Structure prediction request, 121 residues.
Amino acid sequence: QVQLVESGGGLVQPGGSLRLSCAASGSIFSTYAMGWYRQAPGKQRELVARITSSGTTNYADSVKGRFVISRDNAKNMVFLQMNSLKPEDTAVYYCNALISPITTMRAMNYWGQGTLVTVSS
Prediction:
């Protein structure tokens, strides 16, 4: 069983910062790409940022220059540093990871339960 658990969401004022963390746990053989998605009320889930196991990153245009994704391969963790937050960044943020569990050795897509980020004065 593989689980992703996010933490770090909350309420922040416009212009503020938050750091999201996500830890993958369970019977993990290998972790490949990891990323963050978000879903605002009434909108579709969208990619925010993604990082490969070798550290290559890509970002949504709307967050470039403000958000930074990083990971700790030894701990199977991924982070999202969010700076200069705007009200339009308000959403539930989901951690995503492509993981091969020991039980199947097949790469599968896993999701966290989501953490709410609210940017408001």
